[in-house]
Protein backbone atom coordinates (compact mmCIF):
# COMPACT_ATOMS: atom_id res chain seq x y z
CA UNK A 1 0.00 0.00 0.00
CA UNK A 2 2.77 2.44 0.96
CA UNK A 3 4.72 1.71 -2.21
CA UNK A 4 1.61 2.14 -4.39
CA UNK A 5 0.84 5.51 -2.90
CA UNK A 6 4.44 6.66 -3.31
CA UNK A 7 4.49 5.56 -6.96
CA UNK A 8 1.34 7.57 -7.65
CA UNK A 9 2.83 10.64 -5.97
CA UNK A 10 6.12 10.21 -7.89
CA UNK A 11 4.27 10.08 -11.22
CA UNK A 12 2.29 13.18 -10.27
CA UNK A 13 5.53 15.06 -9.52
CA UNK A 14 7.00 13.97 -12.88
CA UNK A 15 3.94 15.20 -14.75
CA UNK A 16 4.01 18.47 -12.85
CA UNK A 17 7.72 19.00 -13.69
CA UNK A 18 7.15 18.14 -17.37
CA UNK A 19 4.22 20.54 -17.54
CA UNK A 20 6.32 23.25 -15.91
CA UNK A 21 9.19 22.63 -18.38
CA UNK A 22 6.85 22.88 -21.37
CA UNK A 23 5.44 26.18 -20.17
CA UNK A 24 8.92 27.63 -19.66
CA UNK A 25 10.67 26.16 -22.74
CA UNK A 26 11.21 29.58 -24.21
CA UNK A 27 12.81 30.93 -21.05
CA UNK A 28 16.57 31.04 -20.75
CA UNK A 29 18.62 29.37 -17.99
CA UNK A 30 15.94 26.78 -17.24
CA UNK A 31 17.01 23.98 -14.95
CA UNK A 32 17.42 20.42 -16.33
CA UNK A 33 14.38 18.18 -15.88
CA UNK A 34 16.01 15.68 -13.51
CA UNK A 35 17.38 18.49 -11.31
CA UNK A 36 13.88 19.84 -10.76
CA UNK A 37 12.54 16.31 -10.30
CA UNK A 38 15.18 15.65 -7.60
CA UNK A 39 14.08 18.74 -5.72
CA UNK A 40 10.41 17.67 -5.98
CA UNK A 41 11.18 14.15 -4.79
CA UNK A 42 13.17 15.49 -1.84
CA UNK A 43 10.30 17.79 -0.87
CA UNK A 44 7.87 14.87 -1.17
CA UNK A 45 10.08 12.65 0.99
CA UNK A 46 10.29 15.16 3.84
CA UNK A 47 6.52 15.79 3.62
CA UNK A 48 5.81 12.08 3.71
CA UNK A 49 8.06 11.72 6.74
CA UNK A 50 6.36 14.57 8.59
CA UNK A 51 2.70 13.96 7.60
CA UNK A 52 2.02 10.41 6.43
CA UNK A 53 4.60 8.17 8.10
CA UNK A 54 3.36 8.77 11.67
CA UNK A 55 -0.09 7.53 10.54
CA UNK A 56 1.20 4.65 8.43
CA UNK A 57 3.33 3.29 11.28
CA UNK A 58 0.21 1.48 12.49
CA UNK A 59 0.55 -0.88 9.51
CA UNK A 60 4.33 -0.78 9.01
CA UNK A 61 7.01 0.13 11.60
CA UNK A 62 9.36 1.46 8.91
CA UNK A 63 6.82 3.34 6.83
CA UNK A 64 9.11 6.31 6.11
CA UNK A 65 11.95 3.93 5.18
CA UNK A 66 9.79 2.03 2.73
CA UNK A 67 8.55 5.28 1.21
CA UNK A 68 12.02 6.78 0.66
CA UNK A 69 13.35 3.46 -0.65
CA UNK A 70 10.55 3.49 -3.22
CA UNK A 71 11.28 7.11 -4.16
CA UNK A 72 14.98 6.24 -4.37
CA UNK A 73 14.23 3.41 -6.80
CA UNK A 74 11.88 5.49 -8.94
CA UNK A 75 14.31 8.37 -9.33
CA UNK A 76 17.20 5.90 -9.79
CA UNK A 77 15.47 4.38 -12.84
CA UNK A 78 15.17 7.79 -14.45
CA UNK A 79 18.77 8.65 -13.54
CA UNK A 80 20.11 5.38 -14.98
CA UNK A 81 18.57 6.13 -18.38
CA UNK A 82 20.01 9.65 -18.23
CA UNK A 83 23.53 8.48 -17.36
CA UNK A 84 23.54 5.84 -20.13
CA UNK A 85 23.13 8.61 -22.69
CA UNK A 86 25.85 10.91 -21.34
CA UNK A 87 28.68 11.70 -23.73
CA UNK A 88 30.44 14.94 -22.86
CA UNK A 89 30.73 16.82 -19.62
CA UNK A 90 28.35 19.81 -19.56
CA UNK A 91 27.08 22.13 -16.82
CA UNK A 92 23.57 20.62 -17.12
CA UNK A 93 24.90 17.10 -16.63
CA UNK A 94 26.90 18.15 -13.58
CA UNK A 95 23.85 19.92 -12.19
CA UNK A 96 21.72 16.76 -12.54
CA UNK A 97 24.36 14.56 -10.93
CA UNK A 98 24.88 16.93 -8.02
CA UNK A 99 21.09 17.16 -7.51
CA UNK A 100 20.91 13.34 -7.57
CA UNK A 101 23.70 13.10 -5.01
CA UNK A 102 21.94 15.57 -2.70
CA UNK A 103 18.62 13.74 -3.08
CA UNK A 104 20.23 10.42 -2.23
CA UNK A 105 21.78 11.84 0.92
CA UNK A 106 18.38 13.26 1.97
CA UNK A 107 16.63 9.92 1.38
CA UNK A 108 19.30 7.91 3.22
CA UNK A 109 19.14 10.34 6.16
CA UNK A 110 15.35 9.87 6.42
CA UNK A 111 15.69 6.07 6.19
CA UNK A 112 18.36 5.98 8.91
CA UNK A 113 16.43 8.27 11.26
CA UNK A 114 13.30 6.22 10.77
CA UNK A 115 15.11 2.96 11.54
CA UNK A 116 16.87 3.91 14.76
CA UNK A 117 14.57 1.71 16.87
CA UNK A 118 14.47 -1.24 14.45
CA UNK A 119 16.23 -4.53 15.16
CA UNK A 120 18.78 -4.23 12.33
CA UNK A 121 19.18 -0.46 12.57
CA UNK A 122 17.68 0.00 9.13
CA UNK A 123 20.22 -2.12 7.27
CA UNK A 124 17.51 -3.97 5.36
CA UNK A 125 16.05 -0.70 4.08
CA UNK A 126 19.48 0.69 3.09
CA UNK A 127 20.21 -2.51 1.13
CA UNK A 128 17.14 -1.76 -0.98
CA UNK A 129 18.70 1.58 -1.97
CA UNK A 130 21.67 0.79 -4.26
CA UNK A 131 23.77 3.97 -4.49
CA UNK A 132 23.46 6.26 -7.47
CA UNK A 133 27.28 6.69 -7.46
CA UNK A 134 26.84 10.19 -8.79
CA UNK A 135 30.29 11.21 -7.51
CA UNK A 136 31.85 8.30 -9.39
CA UNK A 137 30.05 9.28 -12.59
CA UNK A 138 31.20 12.88 -12.14
CA UNK A 139 34.74 11.71 -11.50
CA UNK A 140 34.79 9.59 -14.67
CA UNK A 141 33.34 12.44 -16.71
CA UNK A 142 35.95 14.86 -15.40
CA UNK A 143 38.72 12.35 -16.17
CA UNK A 144 37.35 12.01 -19.69
CA UNK A 145 37.27 15.81 -19.97
CA UNK A 146 40.89 15.94 -18.80
CA UNK A 147 41.92 13.32 -21.37
CA UNK A 148 40.29 15.32 -24.16
CA UNK A 149 42.05 18.51 -23.06
CA UNK A 150 45.41 16.75 -22.84
CA UNK A 151 45.00 15.20 -26.29
CA UNK A 152 44.32 18.66 -27.64
CA UNK A 153 47.40 20.00 -25.86
CA UNK A 154 49.61 17.23 -27.31
CA UNK A 155 48.39 18.05 -30.81
CA UNK A 156 49.04 21.74 -30.20
CA UNK A 157 52.57 21.06 -28.94
CA UNK A 158 53.47 19.00 -32.00
CA UNK A 159 51.87 21.47 -34.41
CA UNK A 160 53.71 24.44 -32.92
CA UNK A 161 57.03 22.60 -32.78
CA UNK A 162 56.76 21.71 -36.46
CA UNK A 163 56.42 25.39 -37.31
CA UNK A 164 59.04 26.66 -34.85
CA UNK A 165 62.22 28.21 -36.32
CA UNK A 166 63.78 29.28 -32.98
CA UNK A 167 64.33 32.85 -34.09
CA UNK A 168 64.88 35.08 -31.02
CA UNK A 169 63.82 38.16 -32.98
CA UNK A 170 60.17 37.07 -33.08
CA UNK A 171 59.49 38.77 -29.74
CA UNK A 172 61.26 41.15 -27.40
CA UNK A 173 61.82 38.44 -24.77
CA UNK A 174 63.83 36.38 -27.31
CA UNK A 175 62.06 33.07 -26.69
CA UNK A 176 60.07 30.85 -29.05
CA UNK A 177 56.48 31.86 -29.99
CA UNK A 178 55.49 28.19 -29.71
CA UNK A 179 56.17 28.38 -25.96
CA UNK A 180 53.68 31.23 -25.65
CA UNK A 181 50.99 29.22 -27.45
CA UNK A 182 51.59 26.04 -25.47
CA UNK A 183 51.53 27.86 -22.14
CA UNK A 184 48.35 29.68 -23.20
CA UNK A 185 46.61 26.34 -23.83
CA UNK A 186 47.89 25.02 -20.49
CA UNK A 187 46.60 28.10 -18.67
CA UNK A 188 43.21 27.80 -20.39
CA UNK A 189 42.96 24.13 -19.41
CA UNK A 190 43.66 24.91 -15.75
CA UNK A 191 41.20 27.80 -15.70
CA UNK A 192 38.49 25.69 -17.35
CA UNK A 193 39.11 22.85 -14.89
CA UNK A 194 38.56 25.08 -11.88
CA UNK A 195 35.41 26.53 -13.44
CA UNK A 196 33.82 23.06 -13.48
CA UNK A 197 31.03 23.03 -10.85
CA UNK A 198 32.42 20.04 -8.97
CA UNK A 199 33.64 19.44 -5.41
CA UNK A 200 36.63 17.25 -6.30
CA UNK A 201 39.09 19.69 -7.86
CA UNK A 202 41.83 18.81 -5.40
CA UNK A 203 41.38 15.06 -5.92
CA UNK A 204 41.47 15.16 -9.73
CA UNK A 205 43.91 18.03 -10.22
CA UNK A 206 46.92 15.70 -10.21
CA UNK A 207 45.47 13.88 -13.25
CA UNK A 208 45.48 17.16 -15.15
CA UNK A 209 48.86 18.47 -13.94
CA UNK A 210 50.57 15.11 -14.54
CA UNK A 211 49.30 15.08 -18.12
CA UNK A 212 50.35 18.69 -18.66
CA UNK A 213 53.75 17.83 -17.18
CA UNK A 214 54.25 15.09 -19.76
CA UNK A 215 53.18 17.33 -22.66
CA UNK A 216 55.62 20.05 -21.65
CA UNK A 217 58.31 17.43 -21.08
CA UNK A 218 57.77 16.39 -24.70
CA UNK A 219 58.19 20.00 -25.81
CA UNK A 220 61.42 20.35 -23.81
CA UNK A 221 62.79 17.14 -25.27
CA UNK A 222 62.11 18.40 -28.79
CA UNK A 223 63.66 21.78 -27.96
CA UNK A 224 66.92 20.02 -27.04
CA UNK A 225 66.91 17.51 -29.88
CA UNK A 226 69.19 17.96 -32.86
CA UNK A 227 71.54 20.32 -31.05
CA UNK A 228 74.38 17.84 -30.62
CA UNK A 229 76.57 17.49 -27.54
CA UNK A 230 80.02 18.50 -26.35
CA UNK A 231 81.61 15.52 -28.07
CA UNK A 232 79.90 16.49 -31.33
CA UNK A 233 82.16 19.53 -31.70
CA UNK A 234 85.47 18.52 -30.09
CA UNK A 235 88.01 17.45 -32.76
CA UNK A 236 89.58 14.01 -32.65
CA UNK A 237 92.98 13.90 -31.00
CA UNK A 238 95.81 13.18 -33.43
CA UNK A 239 98.24 10.35 -32.77
CA UNK A 240 101.21 11.09 -30.55
CA UNK A 241 104.42 12.07 -32.33
CA UNK A 242 107.75 13.57 -31.35
CA UNK A 243 109.31 16.80 -32.47
CA UNK A 244 112.47 17.03 -34.55
CA UNK A 245 114.64 20.04 -35.21
CA UNK A 246 112.96 20.36 -38.63
CA UNK A 247 109.34 20.05 -37.48
CA UNK A 248 109.08 23.76 -36.67
CA UNK A 249 109.84 24.73 -40.26
CA UNK A 250 107.58 22.08 -41.71
CA UNK A 251 104.90 23.42 -39.39
CA UNK A 252 105.26 26.89 -40.90
CA UNK A 253 104.27 25.63 -44.32
CA UNK A 254 101.40 23.65 -42.90
CA UNK A 255 100.22 26.75 -41.07
CA UNK A 256 100.23 28.80 -44.27
CA UNK A 257 98.18 26.17 -46.06
CA UNK A 258 95.66 25.94 -43.19
CA UNK A 259 95.46 29.68 -42.74
CA UNK A 260 94.50 30.13 -46.39
CA UNK A 261 91.61 27.74 -45.80
CA UNK A 262 90.69 29.58 -42.61
CA UNK A 263 90.60 32.94 -44.41
CA UNK A 264 87.95 31.58 -46.73
CA UNK A 265 85.72 30.72 -43.77
CA UNK A 266 83.60 33.48 -42.31
CA UNK A 267 82.26 33.80 -38.81
CA UNK A 268 78.55 32.95 -38.74
CA UNK A 269 77.51 34.59 -35.52
CA UNK A 270 73.81 34.12 -34.87
CA UNK A 271 72.95 32.41 -38.16
CA UNK A 272 72.34 28.87 -39.30
CA UNK A 273 75.66 27.49 -40.46
CA UNK A 274 76.23 26.38 -44.00
CA UNK A 275 76.38 22.72 -42.95
CA UNK A 276 72.83 22.98 -41.61
CA UNK A 277 73.70 23.03 -37.92
CA UNK A 278 71.99 25.47 -35.61
CA UNK A 279 73.30 29.01 -35.30
CA UNK A 280 74.16 30.48 -31.93
CA UNK A 281 71.12 32.79 -31.88
CA UNK A 282 68.86 29.79 -32.36
CA UNK A 283 70.54 27.97 -29.48
CA UNK A 284 70.16 31.08 -27.33
CA UNK A 285 66.47 31.17 -28.24
CA UNK A 286 66.09 27.57 -27.06
CA UNK A 287 67.84 28.41 -23.78
CA UNK A 288 65.52 31.38 -23.28
CA UNK A 289 62.50 29.22 -24.07
CA UNK A 290 63.36 26.65 -21.41
CA UNK A 291 64.01 29.46 -18.93
CA UNK A 292 60.60 30.94 -19.78
CA UNK A 293 58.96 27.56 -19.16
CA UNK A 294 60.82 27.23 -15.88
CA UNK A 295 59.46 30.57 -14.66
CA UNK A 296 55.91 30.03 -15.91
CA UNK A 297 55.65 26.48 -14.53
CA UNK A 298 56.36 27.87 -11.08
CA UNK A 299 53.64 30.50 -11.61
CA UNK A 300 51.15 27.86 -12.80
CA UNK A 301 51.87 25.61 -9.82
CA UNK A 302 51.26 28.48 -7.38
CA UNK A 303 48.07 29.49 -9.19
CA UNK A 304 46.76 25.92 -9.09
CA UNK A 305 47.52 25.71 -5.36
CA UNK A 306 45.61 28.95 -4.82
CA UNK A 307 42.61 27.60 -6.75
CA UNK A 308 42.63 24.40 -4.71
CA UNK A 309 42.68 26.31 -1.45
CA UNK A 310 39.61 28.25 -2.57
CA UNK A 311 37.71 25.17 -3.79
CA UNK A 312 35.38 22.85 -1.88
CA UNK A 313 37.91 20.13 -1.00
CA UNK A 314 38.66 17.93 1.96
CA UNK A 315 42.11 17.07 3.30
CA UNK A 316 43.49 20.37 2.14
CA UNK A 317 46.80 20.03 3.96
CA UNK A 318 47.70 16.85 2.09
CA UNK A 319 46.54 18.24 -1.26
CA UNK A 320 48.43 21.54 -1.05
CA UNK A 321 51.57 19.73 0.14
CA UNK A 322 51.32 17.50 -2.90
CA UNK A 323 50.99 20.51 -5.20
CA UNK A 324 54.62 21.30 -4.46
CA UNK A 325 55.46 18.50 -6.90
CA UNK A 326 53.26 19.79 -9.73
CA UNK A 327 55.15 19.94 -13.05
CA UNK A 328 58.16 18.38 -11.30
CA UNK A 329 59.34 16.45 -14.38
CA UNK A 330 59.18 19.50 -16.63
CA UNK A 331 60.85 21.79 -14.12
CA UNK A 332 63.72 19.34 -13.65
CA UNK A 333 63.97 18.88 -17.42
CA UNK A 334 64.16 22.66 -17.90
CA UNK A 335 67.06 22.93 -15.45
CA UNK A 336 68.91 20.03 -17.05
CA UNK A 337 68.06 21.22 -20.57
CA UNK A 338 69.38 24.71 -19.91
CA UNK A 339 72.61 23.20 -18.57
CA UNK A 340 73.01 20.99 -21.64
CA UNK A 341 72.20 23.77 -24.12
CA UNK A 342 74.65 26.15 -22.41
CA UNK A 343 77.41 23.56 -22.72
CA UNK A 344 76.48 22.77 -26.33
CA UNK A 345 76.43 26.47 -27.23
CA UNK A 346 79.84 27.02 -25.68
CA UNK A 347 81.49 24.03 -27.34
CA UNK A 348 79.92 24.87 -30.70
CA UNK A 349 81.30 28.41 -30.56
CA UNK A 350 84.80 27.42 -29.50
CA UNK A 351 85.37 24.14 -31.33
CA UNK A 352 83.16 24.55 -34.40
CA UNK A 353 82.43 28.14 -35.31
CA UNK A 354 85.87 29.38 -34.24
CA UNK A 355 87.90 26.29 -35.13
CA UNK A 356 89.56 28.20 -38.00
CA UNK A 357 91.20 30.58 -35.52
CA UNK A 358 91.66 28.11 -32.68
CA UNK A 359 92.25 24.56 -33.87
CA UNK A 360 93.50 25.49 -37.34
CA UNK A 361 95.36 28.66 -36.41
CA UNK A 362 96.51 29.07 -32.81
CA UNK A 363 100.25 28.33 -32.39
CA UNK A 364 100.52 26.63 -35.77
CA UNK A 365 104.13 27.14 -36.83
CA UNK A 366 105.90 29.88 -34.88
CA UNK A 367 104.09 30.72 -31.62
CA UNK A 368 105.03 34.39 -31.85
CA UNK A 369 103.28 34.78 -35.23
CA UNK A 370 100.13 32.73 -34.52
CA UNK A 371 98.90 34.06 -31.23
CA UNK A 372 95.44 34.16 -29.65
CA UNK A 373 94.30 37.63 -30.78
CA UNK A 374 92.28 36.47 -33.86
CA UNK A 375 90.42 34.00 -31.65
CA UNK A 376 89.67 36.68 -29.06
CA UNK A 377 88.37 39.13 -31.67
CA UNK A 378 85.84 36.68 -33.08
CA UNK A 379 84.97 35.24 -29.67
CA UNK A 380 84.05 38.73 -28.48
CA UNK A 381 81.42 38.97 -31.22
CA UNK A 382 79.74 35.81 -29.93
CA UNK A 383 79.83 37.08 -26.36
CA UNK A 384 78.04 40.23 -27.51
CA UNK A 385 75.31 38.16 -29.18
CA UNK A 386 74.89 36.14 -25.99
CA UNK A 387 74.76 39.28 -23.84
CA UNK A 388 72.07 40.81 -26.04
CA UNK A 389 70.02 37.64 -26.55
CA UNK A 390 70.11 35.33 -23.52
CA UNK A 391 67.77 35.84 -20.56
CA UNK A 392 69.53 37.67 -17.75
CA UNK A 393 68.99 34.81 -15.30
CA UNK A 394 71.04 32.37 -17.40
CA UNK A 395 73.36 34.78 -19.22
CA UNK A 396 76.21 34.32 -16.73
CA UNK A 397 75.89 30.54 -17.01
CA UNK A 398 76.21 30.60 -20.81
CA UNK A 399 79.21 32.95 -20.75
CA UNK A 400 80.82 30.84 -18.02
CA UNK A 401 80.42 27.74 -20.18
CA UNK A 402 81.99 29.60 -23.12
CA UNK A 403 84.91 30.51 -20.87
CA UNK A 404 85.33 26.91 -19.72
CA UNK A 405 85.18 25.70 -23.33
CA UNK A 406 87.80 28.31 -24.30
CA UNK A 407 90.11 27.09 -21.55
CA UNK A 408 89.53 23.49 -22.70
CA UNK A 409 90.25 24.58 -26.27
CA UNK A 410 93.54 26.21 -25.29
CA UNK A 411 94.63 23.08 -23.40
CA UNK A 412 93.66 20.89 -26.34
CA UNK A 413 95.79 23.03 -28.65
CA UNK A 414 98.73 22.84 -26.25
CA UNK A 415 98.47 19.13 -25.42
CA UNK A 416 96.83 17.58 -28.48
CA UNK A 417 97.27 20.13 -31.27
CA UNK A 418 98.88 17.70 -33.69
CA UNK A 419 102.04 17.86 -35.82
CA UNK A 420 101.75 21.56 -36.86
CA UNK A 421 102.58 22.62 -33.29
CA UNK A 422 105.83 22.55 -31.34
CA UNK A 423 106.92 24.63 -28.34
CA UNK A 424 110.24 25.99 -27.11
CA UNK A 425 110.90 26.88 -23.49
CA UNK A 426 110.88 30.57 -24.41
CA UNK A 427 107.31 30.24 -25.77
CA UNK A 428 105.99 29.94 -22.22
CA UNK A 429 105.87 33.71 -21.67
CA UNK A 430 103.87 34.20 -24.88
CA UNK A 431 101.41 31.43 -24.05
CA UNK A 432 100.96 32.71 -20.48
CA UNK A 433 100.36 36.22 -21.81
CA UNK A 434 97.78 34.89 -24.28
CA UNK A 435 95.98 33.06 -21.49
CA UNK A 436 95.90 36.26 -19.46
CA UNK A 437 94.34 38.05 -22.45
CA UNK A 438 91.73 35.29 -22.67
CA UNK A 439 90.87 35.70 -18.98
CA UNK A 440 90.76 39.48 -19.37
CA UNK A 441 88.20 39.14 -22.17
CA UNK A 442 85.80 37.40 -19.79
CA UNK A 443 86.59 39.75 -16.91
CA UNK A 444 86.04 42.77 -19.21
CA UNK A 445 87.43 45.34 -16.75
CA UNK A 446 84.98 44.21 -14.08
CA UNK A 447 81.88 44.29 -16.33
CA UNK A 448 82.07 40.59 -17.22
CA UNK A 449 82.37 37.51 -15.08
CA UNK A 450 83.49 37.80 -11.43
CA UNK A 451 87.23 37.45 -10.91
CA UNK A 452 86.78 34.60 -8.43
CA UNK A 453 84.71 32.65 -10.99
CA UNK A 454 87.42 33.09 -13.62
CA UNK A 455 90.04 32.04 -11.08
CA UNK A 456 88.03 28.94 -10.17
CA UNK A 457 87.83 27.63 -13.71
CA UNK A 458 91.36 28.66 -14.72
CA UNK A 459 92.94 26.46 -12.04
CA UNK A 460 93.77 23.60 -14.42
CA UNK A 461 95.33 25.86 -17.08
CA UNK A 462 97.33 27.72 -14.44
CA UNK A 463 98.59 24.40 -13.08
CA UNK A 464 99.63 23.03 -16.49
CA UNK A 465 101.20 26.13 -18.09
CA UNK A 466 104.33 25.99 -15.86
CA UNK A 467 105.12 22.61 -17.45
CA UNK A 468 105.92 24.50 -20.67
CA UNK A 469 108.55 26.45 -18.72
CA UNK A 470 110.03 23.37 -17.02
CA UNK A 471 113.32 22.12 -18.51
CA UNK A 472 113.16 18.86 -20.43
CA UNK A 473 115.26 16.78 -18.06
CA UNK A 474 113.02 17.71 -15.14
CA UNK A 475 109.93 16.88 -17.20
CA UNK A 476 111.32 13.46 -18.09
CA UNK A 477 112.14 12.83 -14.45
CA UNK A 478 108.63 13.85 -13.35
CA UNK A 479 107.08 11.69 -16.05
CA UNK A 480 109.09 8.63 -15.04
CA UNK A 481 108.30 9.15 -11.37
CA UNK A 482 104.54 9.63 -11.93
CA UNK A 483 104.38 6.62 -14.26
CA UNK A 484 106.07 4.43 -11.66
CA UNK A 485 103.71 5.80 -9.01
CA UNK A 486 100.72 4.98 -11.22
CA UNK A 487 101.74 1.55 -12.50
CA UNK A 488 104.02 0.30 -9.69
CA UNK A 489 106.89 -2.15 -10.04
CA UNK A 490 105.58 -3.48 -13.37
CA UNK A 491 106.72 -0.19 -14.98
CA UNK A 492 110.38 -0.51 -13.90
CA UNK A 493 111.51 -2.70 -16.80
CA UNK A 494 109.58 -0.74 -19.45
CA UNK A 495 107.49 2.37 -19.04
CA UNK A 496 103.94 1.71 -20.29
CA UNK A 497 102.34 4.27 -22.59
CA UNK A 498 99.80 6.02 -20.37
CA UNK A 499 96.30 6.21 -21.91
CA UNK A 500 94.72 9.52 -22.85
CA UNK A 501 91.96 10.42 -20.38
CA UNK A 502 91.46 14.04 -21.37
CA UNK A 503 91.51 14.91 -17.68
CA UNK A 504 94.59 17.10 -17.87
CA UNK A 505 96.64 17.40 -14.71
CA UNK A 506 100.28 18.33 -14.05
CA UNK A 507 100.73 15.12 -12.06
CA UNK A 508 98.99 12.88 -14.60
CA UNK A 509 101.44 10.82 -16.75
CA UNK A 510 99.65 11.34 -20.07
CA UNK A 511 99.61 15.13 -19.58
CA UNK A 512 103.38 15.14 -18.89
CA UNK A 513 103.99 12.88 -21.88
CA UNK A 514 102.11 15.26 -24.18
CA UNK A 515 104.15 18.24 -23.04
CA UNK A 516 107.25 16.23 -23.98
CA UNK A 517 105.72 15.27 -27.35
CA UNK A 518 105.26 18.96 -28.25
CA UNK A 519 108.62 20.05 -26.81
CA UNK A 520 110.85 21.18 -29.67
CA UNK A 521 113.95 19.73 -28.07
CA UNK A 522 116.40 16.97 -29.04
CA UNK A 523 116.49 15.57 -25.50
CA UNK A 524 112.67 15.11 -25.51
CA UNK A 525 112.74 13.64 -29.02
CA UNK A 526 115.45 11.10 -28.12
CA UNK A 527 113.61 10.06 -24.94
CA UNK A 528 110.35 9.50 -26.83
CA UNK A 529 112.17 7.62 -29.59
CA UNK A 530 113.99 5.35 -27.14
CA UNK A 531 111.05 4.78 -24.76
CA UNK A 532 108.05 4.51 -27.10
CA UNK A 533 109.53 4.71 -30.61
CA UNK A 534 107.12 7.53 -31.43
CA UNK A 535 107.35 8.73 -35.04
CA UNK A 536 108.60 12.19 -36.00
CA UNK A 537 106.15 14.86 -37.01
CA UNK A 538 105.65 14.80 -40.76
TrEMBL record:
<dbReference type="InterPro" id="IPR008528">
    <property type="entry name" value="unc-13_homologue"/>
</dbReference>
<feature type="domain" description="MHD1">
    <location>
        <begin position="94"/>
        <end position="237"/>
    </location>
</feature>
<dbReference type="InterPro" id="IPR014772">
    <property type="entry name" value="Munc13_dom-2"/>
</dbReference>
<feature type="domain" description="MHD2">
    <location>
        <begin position="369"/>
        <end position="479"/>
    </location>
</feature>
<dbReference type="Pfam" id="PF25761">
    <property type="entry name" value="TPR_PATROL1"/>
</dbReference>
<protein>
    <recommendedName>
        <fullName>MHD1 domain-containing protein</fullName>
    </recommendedName>
</protein>
<dbReference type="InterPro" id="IPR014770">
    <property type="entry name" value="Munc13_1"/>
</dbReference>
<dbReference type="InterPro" id="IPR057984">
    <property type="entry name" value="PATROL1_C"/>
</dbReference>
Amino acid sequence: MIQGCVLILFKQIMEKVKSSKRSSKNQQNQFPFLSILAQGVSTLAFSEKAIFSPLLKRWHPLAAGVAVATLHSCYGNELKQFVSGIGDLTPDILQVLRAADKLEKDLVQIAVENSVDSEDGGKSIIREMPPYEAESVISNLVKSWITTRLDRLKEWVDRNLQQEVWDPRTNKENFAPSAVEVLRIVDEALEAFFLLPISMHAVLLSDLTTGIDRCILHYISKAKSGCGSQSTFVPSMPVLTRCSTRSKFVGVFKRKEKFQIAQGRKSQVGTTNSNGSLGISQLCCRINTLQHFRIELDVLAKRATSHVRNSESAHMDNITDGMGKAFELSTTACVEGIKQLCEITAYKIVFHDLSHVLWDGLYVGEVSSSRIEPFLQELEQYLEVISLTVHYRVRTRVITEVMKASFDGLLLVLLAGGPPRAFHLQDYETIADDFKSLCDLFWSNGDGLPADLIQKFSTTVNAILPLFHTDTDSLIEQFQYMTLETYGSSAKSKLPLPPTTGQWNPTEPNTLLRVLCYRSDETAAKFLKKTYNLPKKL
